[in-house]
Amino acid sequence: MDELMTWPRGASAGPEGSGVPAPAGAVAAGVGAAVPLGGAPAVAAEVATTVEGGPDLAAGWSVGLDVGGTKTLGVLVAPDGAVGPSVRLAARSGGDGVAGTAAEAVRALVAEAGLPAGALAGVGIGLPGIVDPARGRVEHAVNLGIEAAVPLAAQVSAALDGVPVRLENDLNVAALGAAHLLPDPAPDLAFLALGTGLAAGLVLDGRLRRGASGVAGEIGHLVHVPGGLPCPCGQRGCLEQYASGGALSAAWPGPGDRPAPVALFEAADSGDAGAVAVRDRFAGAVAAAVRVLLLTTDVAHVVVGGGVAELGDPLLRVVRARLDDEARDSAFLAAMHMAERVSLAPRGVPVGAVGAALVGRKES
């Protein structure tokens, strides 16, 4: 059953009046200072994560961990929803390595806040691979060095003296975190991740939507160009071969001293015709991904995140421009105001870790 997430708002606007809470501090190898959500001086928006028929567990603290192939990013979330200290640790490979790093991060955050271990309502972990939230297992997380199923939740819980630990897919926790950071009282959102591949996490009417087989939002494998570029999934012309960080790196390797997206957009801005063509093809593919999400789910917001989103406003401008161009030829699309519904994930905010902390509050 998909869990029901309800988050009454009330936090003040974040940087530049965006309505996005101010980011929590994060350091390369240690614990950052606590930062209230929304920059509020004392209390922030209350977080209540419930399951139908279950009790509200918002009374306790929770830790969220966003686990990737190179780092584990953790954050402590207070009972009132404020984002507290954060920690970033280098990743260790394999099931034991991931579990050990996760437990280390939790201990560091609890110690920094001066909390007893029993104060935690739970720990949530977002990670790639095939995640079974009900059993607390993960498998085929190749970039974590995990192939066969690992009972990661039980391993981390045992290392933390029985604190409840819950797992979720990394895209899903990012969607939950992004929805939590929105000022809207009823989150309704798709989190579009432009990373090595392309996929989306969905929060519909406040509920995380996994789908019947757990692949809701895998729009990267919709065919965008029939007979086009080969995809590892076995098809040709998949959307992620045109609208992802991996696609940009393949189409525009760049000089090597800067990330491919940065080099591409700089070259396009300088008038390089080849770069303009690659950038525009990429913007068209991302716009197609947005259009698919809006036409199939009609979410209020599509929040773009992932590594390519670090480009910031230049990326947002070209994607919105492409959506506006398409709407000029269609009164139907124009009425949907697609470009206005696209935004970027707030930079410097541990969106995935915040969402994982919400998962950690779920009834055990």
Structure characterization notes:
The structure is a single chain. With 364 residues, the chain is of the alpha/beta class. The N terminus is likely disordered. The protein has nine helices and 14 strands. The protein is globular and about 60 Å long. It has a five-stranded mixed sheet. It is 31% helix and 20% strand.
SSE order and pairing:
Layout lengths: L3 E3 L41 E3 L10 E7 L3 E7 L5 E8 L3 H20 L6 E8 L2 E3 L4 E3 L12 H8 L5 E5 H12 L7 E6 L3 E7 L2 E3 L35 H7 L8 H10 L3 H25 L3 E5 L7 H15 L3 H6 L5 E3 L6 H10 L4
Parallel strand pairs: 3-6, 6-9, 10-13, 13-14
Antiparallel strand pairs: 1-2, 3-4, 4-5, 7-8, 10-11, 11-12
Helix pairs in contact: 1-2, 3-9, 5-6, 6-7
Radius of gyration, whole Å: 20 Å
Instruction: Quote the beta fraction.
Output: 15-25%
Label the structural class.
alpha/beta
The number of helices is 9
Q: Which sequence of strands runs across the widest sheet?
A: 5-4-3-6-9
Distance between the termini: 13 Å
> In percent, how helical is the residue content?
25-40%
**Tally of strands:** 14
Brief rundown of the structure:
This protein has 364 residues and is of the alpha/beta class. It has 9 helices and 14 strands.
Please name the defining characteristics of this protein:
364 residues; alpha/beta; 5-stranded mixed beta sheet; 14 strands; 20% strand
